[in-house]
Structure formats: structure tokens, C-alpha cells
Amino acid sequence: MAVKDYLRHRFFPHIWCPGCGHGIVMAGMIRAIEQIGLKKNEVVVVSGIGCSSRMAGYLDFHTMHTLHGRALAFATGVKLGRSDLTVIVPMGDGDALAIGGNHFIHAARRNIDLTAIVMNNRIYGMTGGQGSPMTPFGIRSTTAPFGSTDPAFDLVQLATGAGASFVARTTTYHAREMTKIIAQAIQHRGFSVVEVMSQCPIYYGRKNKLGDGVDIMKGFRDETTVIGSKKKEAHPDLIERGVFVDKEGAVI
Ligand SMILES: Cc1ncc(C[n+]2csc(CCOP(=O)(O)OP(=O)(O)O)c2C)c(N)n1
Ligand code: SF4
């Protein structure tokens, strides 16, 4: 099937701004699900609230569009009730790590078989570009017009420390790598976290004068490297991509 066959056309046009990265992630998720060979009625997509969370409306699987920050709690209930279904949770970085931060670390600790795909655009997109726990030090947002005075979480380290049994990072620039990693995460039994660096050209891009969506994606190309590469040794500031943790997960 084509990507469009997995979409609910009655909800289109979508709300995403031109150049937003979230559509690239949604297409990657669809391709991963198709590659694994899951049928539509074997997948449940549970989301909170945010631009990224709108996926639960657009995707033609079983879906629940729940409360901001609470998606993992709802998803845990779904998995406990129907462990035969594959439960995927698309999240924003605010949704996952600000209001939903406690749910996130405890989902990782419990290691229930859920896949959290965190679209890290480093900002609250839907509500107007406020800073999130993923906004780096010195970066501008609506709530930090002169630059953030706080450091950001390292999502990979946070998820690993909290006990997630599959932890990976990729970007919207690396679309094929993203699809492969999402497929691995979905097939992994246990709590899987995939950080996808995604672009919000409208708020993050504009406030920090980073150009359009393509310019920000070129930044992902230039500012990242695969885990353990020679480039990383020469340029320690590069952000690593790939699978950081892949160990035995939970029974549920
Ligand atoms: C309980 C609650 N608090 C706050 C909000 C307002 N709100 C909606 S989306 C959002 C943040 C969205 O940012 P993020 O989760 O990073 O997703 P993005 O829009 O960037 O994809 C907030 C604060 C809400 N809907 N419910
Ligand atoms: S506000 Fe940002 S995150 Fe939301 S749809 Fe627009 S570009 Fe995407």
C-alpha cells in the first residue's frame, strides 16, 4: 500500500505548517509499520496534545487522542488490556518531557511494551513557541526572548537512566535511517524510545534565524553523526545518531 492508504483523508488538509518535520516522521512510522507487516487493526496509536500529537487523528489505525502529557498513561492501560496489539505513542518534546515527564520516566522504569516516538523540535509548537525542557541553553523561544538560561535534557541519557530497554536517536533529514530505527523500536519487546530531531521552522526556526525547514534539516545533517564515528572523535560537539540501548525488555 502507499503512505496515503494509511491516512484518514476526511481529516485533511492537515494543520501542519509548510516545512514542519512532523509529516516526515508520520510517513516514516507508516513505512515502518508496513515493512513489519502489521495490519491496520493490529496497531493502536495513542497521543496527547500538540502539533505532533495530531497524528492520532490522521492515521487510519485504532487511535486515541488523549490529554497533553498523559498519552503514556492511556497507552499503558491499552497495552495491559490488549497485550496482543502494538501500541505506538507519537509525542512532542513538551508532551513527553515537560508536563508528561513523570509518566515518561515511569513508563521507562516499568518497561511495558510501548514505543514512544518523541518528535524533538526543541519547542512547544502548537501553543506559540514557548521553551521546553529540550530547548538548548542560549536558544531563543517565546518565553526566553534573549535565550534560554537553562540547559536541555539529553533525551537518550534520560531514557537510558530511567530504564528504557530500547533507546535511539535519528532526525528527519535521515528519513531511511529513521524508518529502520522506528521498525526496530516497534519490534522490540519493552519500552522503546526513539528521539527524532524534527523541525519547527515557524517558531524555533524563525526566532533563532535558522531559515526554512530545509535549512534546519541541513543543520541536522551537519550537526549529527553516527554513534562511535571518527567524525565524533574529531568534533566532540556532534550529536550522535543510532541505537544506544537494545536489551531485553519486559514480559507485558
Ligand atoms: C493540561 C494541558 N496543559 C497545557 C495545554 C496546552 N498545550 C497544548 S499543546 C502544548 C505543547 C505542545 O508542544 P509539544 O508537546 O512539544 O508538541 P509540538 O506542538 O511542538 O509538536 C501545550 C502546552 C494542554 N492542552 N493541556
Ligand atoms: S507550529 Fe511548528 S511544530 Fe507546529 S505545525 Fe507549525 S512548524 Fe510544525
Distance from N terminus to C terminus (CA atoms, Å) equals: 30 Å
**What number of domains?**
1
Q: Mean pLDDT, nearest integer?
A: 97
Low-confidence regions? none
CATH architecture: 3-Layer(aba) Sandwich
Please state how the strands of the largest beta sheet are arranged side by side.
Answer: 2-1-3-4-8-7-10-9
Q: What's the CATH class label? A: Alpha Beta
Bound molecules: thiamine diphosphate, iron/sulfur cluster
How many DSSP helices? Answer: 10
Shape: globular
Biggest pleated sheet? 8 strands, mixed
What level of helicity do the residues show?
25-40%
- Strand pairing plus helix content: what structural class? alpha/beta
Q: What is the strand content? A: 15-25%
Protein architecture, described:
This protein is an alpha/beta fold and 252 residues long. The chain has a single domain, classed as 3-Layer(aba) Sandwich (Rossmann fold). It contains ten helices and ten strands. The strands form two sheets. An eight-stranded mixed beta sheet has the order 2-1-3-4-8-7-10-9, with helices on both faces. β9, α10 and β10 form a beta-alpha-beta unit. The longest helix is centred in the N-terminal third of the chain and has 15 residues. The chain is globular and about 50 Å long. The two termini are 30 Å apart. The model has no long low-confidence stretch (mean pLDDT 97). Iron/sulfur cluster binds next to α8.
